[in-house]
Please model this.
Amino acid sequence: MSQTEHNIVASREHILNSQTVVEESPLLHTNTLAENSSPPAADPFKSSLEAGITWPCLASAVIICISPLQYGYHIAELNTPKNIITSCNKDAVHWSSLPLCLPMNDTMYSIATSAFAVGGLLGSLSAGWMAEKWGRRGALIYNSVPFIFGPLLMAFAISPVMLAVGRFISGLGSGVSVVIAPLYLSEIAPVKYRGTLNLLNQFSIVVGVLTTLTVGMLANSGPYWRISVGFGLVLACLHLFVFPFAVESPRYLWSRNKRVEARNVLRKLRHTPDVDEEVAGWPTSTLTISRDRALLNRHGPGEPRATASNTVLQNNVPQGNGAKPDDDDNDDDGDYNNNNTEGGLLATTAKVTVFNIFRFARYRKAWLLVLLLQFGQQLSGINAIFYYSSSVLAKMFSSQLVGILTMMIGVLNVIATASGALVVDRFGRRPLLFSSIAAMTVSMILLGLGLGIGNNILAAVSIYLVVASFAPGYGPVPFLLGTELFDVRAASAGGSWALAANWIGTFIVAVAFLPIQNLIGVWVFAIFISALLVCGAVFYFFIPETKGRTIEEIAAEFE
Model:
C-alpha cells in the first residue's frame, strides 16, 4: 500500500471512530450523538441479532402500517355504495349545494373504479425513487399528500370525472405505500422475526378492506356515501399525526453513510447497545466507496494508480457484494467506464434503478421471481372470487344477509392473515406459500364444481375456503419475499417492479374475467387452477427458504 493510500485509510478510521461526531437527521428531527452515547438501558451482553420485537420496533411498524391500511381502504371504497352513488333517492335529505348522487352508466363507473389501478401502477413505479431520495419514512410522509387530496376530491365530487380523478390520486398514494411499507418493515425487523413483522403489511391491508366494508354499510343511504369515500382523509390525518414517533430505517441510514445515526436507531429498535455483529454484515455505503474512489484517483506524479486490488478497496468493498450490468456501457450516473482495473469498485458503486435493475446479472433472477410472485398472485383469481361472492350468496340469501355474509368474508380474511403472521417465522416461507397454493387449488376445484352442478351450498362454502387458503400464505408471502430477495441497493427498485406486476395483474383479471366467464362459463376457474399449478411448480424449484437468514445472505444466493 502506498503512503497516500495508508493516509486515506487512517483518516477514514479516525472519522468513523471519533467520539465527537454529531449527526442531525432531517427525518428524525433529533441530534444523534456519537457512537459511545448512552444507549437505552438493556442487557449489555445481549447482541442485537438475538433481540426480539421490542416496543419501539413494534410502535414504528404499526405507525408505518397505517399507510398500507389506507391502500386497503381505498381498494373497496366504491363497492358497497355503488347504487346510492349512481341512483338518486328522491326522499333523501340534501347536503348544501352538492349533488345527491352522480348518475353514470356501468362503463363510466368502471372507469372511475379502474382509475385507482392506473394510479397505483404509476405510484409503484415511482416508489423506488422516492424511497432512495427521501428515505423510507420520509417518502411515506410525502405520500400523505395524495392520501389527503384523493378523498377530498371524492367527498366533494360534483361530477363522475371528479370522482375518477380522486380515485386516481388515491391510487398514486396506494401504489407508493405498498412498495415502501413492506420494505421498511423488513429493514427494521430482527432477523428471527422478519416474517412476522413484515406480515403486518398484509394484515393492515385486509383490516383496511374490512374497515371500508363496515363504513360502507353504515353510510349506505342518501348522501352519506360522501362520508364513505371521504373517510380516507381521517386515516391520512391520523397517519401524519403519529409519524413523528416512527424512526427511519437504520439500513437506509447506513446506506447513506450515516453510520452513527444508523447504529443509534438500531440500538433503540433492538433495545441493546451491542449492534456490532448485526451491522458487520451490512454492505458499505456506496457514497463512502465513491468518496474513496475520488480520493485514490488524486495520485501524485510517479505514484501508481489505485486499483480494486488495493488493500483499501478490499477493506471497504464487501467481497461478492458487487453487481454490474452485462454490458460495459457507461451508467447513467457515470459510475462505469472502460477501465477494467476498477471493475470491482465501479460495479459496487453502480446505482440500481427501475430502469436498469434487469441489466444486473445478480438481480435478474430475483427480479423475475418477484414479478411472477405478484403477477401469479392475481392470476390465482382471488380478486375475481371477492367479486363473485356477492352474486353466489345472493342466490341463497336475502340482500341484508348477503351484506352480513360478505362482511364475514372480510373478517375471515383478517383472522386468516393474522394466523399466517403467527407461524411464518416458525415454519418458514416455503411451507406457508406451498400449503396456501395447494389449499387454494383444491378450493377452486370445489368452487367450480359447485357452480357447475348448481350446488349453491358447496359454492358458498368454497368461497370461504378460497379466502381462508389465500390469506395466510399466497396473500402476504409475495410481499415479504419481495423485500428479502434483494439487498439494500436493489430493494427499492425491485419492490417497485413487484407491485407494478401486481397492479397489472389486477387490471387484467378485472377486465378479462367477466368476458371470459360469459364465453366459457365456470371453466374460467380452470384458468386460475392452471395458474396456481404452474406458479407453484416454478416457486418450488427456484424460491429459497429465507427464514432466519440475513438479507445479505439471501441476496448472495442469487449471485
Q: What stands out?
A: The longest strand covers residues 23-24.
